[in-house]
Design brief:
Helix content is about 55%, strand content about 5%. It contains 28 helices and 6 strands. The strands form 2 sheets. Strands 1-5-6-4 form a 4-stranded mixed sheet, sandwiched between helices. It has a two-stranded antiparallel sheet with strand order 2-3. Helix 7 packs antiparallel against helix 9 and helix 13 packs across helix 15. It starts with 13 loop residues before the first strand and ends in a 6-residue tail after the last helix.
Length: about 675
């Protein structure tokens, strides 16, 4: 068994929407990558069309709550978020609780004392995780607040130390005569995992500290101001966005110069991270960091070779499908008129449908609103807010949604998405010490919620409902494409960890072109956009989770048309599982298909085209034979002027459906993230 390999515990379910917000050089366009492309397409094709006033939010039909019993009983503190106070957590508190358990387990005839000490230690882990979340929420509200940044950095360092102490104490107690008592209390699977646990290796701990230092350097470098000279004048990303018309030759010339300058700094940080991670993998018994991440970090029940086998289908089937979605008859101009005034307008729109889907979802939604367990608003001028995430507040038995709104239709999908995470946290009774977090599963909670709410799209949005539904489908297709694309890049780099930076830029350009060349601009044979995707710095090899989870979410949407209640039951089974089992096993148990089954992307292509009344099933290979115009557009220059990516204020790529979960106290010290964009 490789060093530090234990079935992954999730101490802090910590889900992050990696989009840049804010203003000035420290911020980036809030609009998602995919939406920027489609907005460019809509402007290019239909900018002269007058947009009628769009009304939406028709009253939901009166329908009683659908009574279900999927979530296990769980205590919720019922405390308003405004009353939750951050207090710096001290490692001494965890050490005292750990020592108390060890001492109790060394005393004869003390069953009650042992169980009491065990529960107190679980509470300490919950309290520590909650303080970490509260610190991070404060930082996310103002990423220019140095005190908040320092507190988050402090908790990031302390958290793995605290969980290490707790795990070591529980392991020691299991090895005493009270082992059977504790195993019965915590469950056989948790006890088995703890018995395999190894305390932090000093070498790995040092490597982990170096990794976190480089991540902090990336956070600072990615939000720094970059400046170049052109025609004797100074240019920044902010000035570029304000003073020049996008898509002009001068615009791209200056943008490429800024991108090159940024790449020298943040790209070099990535190169150093790859070196550190090679050492981490080696210390843990792996020849390749990608194998280590797939197996020991994320605990996946599929391999990078499994992902490699589906890439051709993604390129040949899903890429043409998303282009057909973008160029369907959807009225994107009307879609852009959906501009919610604030979060309450979105929540008011959602509320009637939650109980109709499940009484438990309705209860979770009402509880969230009643206790203010969310911060959803637009960034004010000069305000540097984080993008969006859902995090756990385990000491209170609750979750919390943080979301920076953009003031357009995508805010609806963002709130739908995040509430899927919140509901799963709300219904998971496991203490944070034993809350498994298989990321490929947890993303289905959010994306599945987003897609199931499309059942009510016409009721919610009126005549623009089909456009919203098309947008939601495109979101998930985009997740499949970008998930495969980023994973292909990362696995190639970790297979050759000495790869120079200029070779990385050329490699990414070639890979991006293989996926239709839809997402990035190029500087000759180079492409720099990869260096502003935070996942590859903070949580390497995570990105494929967006693709693996998007597929079953799309399956739920397709199946809901003919079996609404059965599909809801399958979704609620998954939501109640707490992401406690790996991807393929979970989907088998929930009777939902997974992306690695034979020919499923072909079937998905056909069913989506039928459902949305898109052109017939076509592949890139068929297009290359001249059977459609899509392939020619993808492989030539026809589509390029329309879909060339405007990187925006800070020149960063705002990625789609980007969320991060901290997975496993065994490796948490390798992966604890903040969300500085």
């Amino acid at each position: 068994m490789p060093k530090h390999f234990v079935r992954s515990f999730t101490n802090r379910v910590f889900m992050v929407e990696w989009t840049y917000q804010g203003s000035g050089e420290a911020g980036v366009m809030g609009m998602s990558l995919k939406r920027r492309i489609k907005r460019a397409a809509a402007w290019a094709l239909a900018f002269t069309i007058a947009v009628p006033f769009v009304s939406f939010g028709a009253a939901a039909a009166q329908e009683s709550a659908r009574e279900t019993g999927w979530y296990a009983p769980k205590e919720h503190a019922g405390v308003d978020f405004s009353q939750m106070e951050y207090r710096r957590y001290e490692l001494a508190d965890m050490e005292a609780a750990a020592d108390k358990l060890i001492q109790a387990a060394g005393t004869a005839g003390g069953d009650e004392l042992v169980l009491e000490a065990y529960e107190e230690l679980l509470d300490e882990v919950d309290r520590m995780g909650t303080m970490y979340s509260l610190a991070d929420i404060a930082y996310s509200r103002n990423m220019d607040d140095q005190d908040a940044a320092d507190e988050t950095a402090y908790m990031r360092t302390l958290y793995p130390q605290g969980t290490d102490r707790a795990a070591a104490a529980m392991k020691a107690a299991l090895d005493t005569s009270y082992g059977p008592l504790l195993e019965d209390k915590m469950g056989r699977a948790n006890a088995r995992s703890l018995r395999y646990y190894e305390e932090l290796d000093p070498v790995l701990e040092k490597l982990g500290e170096r990794e976190q230092q480089l991540i902090l350097e990336y956070d600072q470098a990615s939000s720094a101001e970059y400046r170049v000279k052109a025609d004797g004048e100074d240019w920044t990303y902010e000035r570029l966005a304000q003073d020049l018309e996008p898509y002009s030759d001068q615009y791209y010339e200056i943008q490429n110069a800024l991108d090159r300058e940024r790449n020298k700094t943040v790209g070099e940080i990535y190169r150093q991270l790859v070196q550190v991670r090679r050492e981490i993998a080696g210390e843990c018994g792996y020849d390749n960091y990608a194998d280590y991440a797939y197996q020991s970090v994320y605990g996946r029940d599929f391999t990078k070779e499994d992902v490699e086998r589906i890439r051709a289908d993604v390129k040949e089937i899903i890429v043409p499908l998303i282009v057909d979605c973008w160029y369907s008859d959807v009225d994107y101009q009307a879609l852009y008129e959906l501009e919610p005034s604030d979060a309450e307008e979105i929540l008011d729109l959602m509320e009637p449908y939650m109980g109709r889907m499940s009484g438990e979802l309705g209860e979770a939604f009402s509880y969230m609103r009643r206790h203010g367990l969310y911060d959803m608003k637009q960034a004010e001028a000069g305000e540097n807010r984080s993008g969006g995430f859902t995090t756990d507040l385990p000491y209170y038995g609750d979750g919390f949604i943080f979301l920076t709104l953009e003031g357009d239709y995508d805010d609806y999908l963002g709130v739908f998405h995040e509430f899927g995470h919140f509901a799963s946290i709300f219904g998971d009774p496991a203490p944070s010490m034993f809350r498994y977090g298989y990321v490929d599963v947890s993303e289905i909670d959010s994306q599945g919620m987003q897609m199931l709410l499309m059942h009510y799209a016409d009721e919610m949005f009126g005549e623009v409902g089909r456009s919203v539904e098309m947008e939601a489908v495109s979101d998930l297709l985009d997740s499949i494409i970008t998930g495969a694309m980023m994973d292909e890049f990362e696995t190639a780099v970790y297979a050759d960890p000495d790869m120079p930076l200029d070779e990385m830029n050329r490699l990414f350009a070639a890979i991006a072109e293989d996926y239709g060349g839809l997402y990035f601009d190029y500087d000759g044979e180079n492409c720099y956009g990869w260096d502003m995707v935070p996942h590859i710095y903070h949580s390497p090899l995570y990105y494929i989770s967006y693709g693996t989870s998007a597929f079953p979410a799309l399956r739920l949407w397709i199946e809901s048309e003919t079996d609404w209640e059965g599909t809801l039951d399958r979704y609620m089974t998954l939501s109640a599982s707490g992401s406690s089992e790996p991807y393929r096993k979970t989907l088998r148990e929930c009777e939902i298909g997974d992306i690695f089954q034979t020919d499923v992307l072909l079937d998905l292509d056909r069913e989506i085209r039928e459902r949305l009344d898109l052109p017939g099933v076509e592949t890139k290979r068929e297009a290359e034979k001249g059977e459609t115009g899509i392939g020619a557009a993808l492989n030539g220059n026809e589509l390029k002027p329309v879909v060339r990516l405007f990187l925006g204020v800070a020149g960063a790529i705002a990625v789609l459906q980007l969320m991060v979960l901290c997975t496993g106290f065994v490796i948490i010290w390798l992966l604890v993230k903040d969300r500085k964009r």
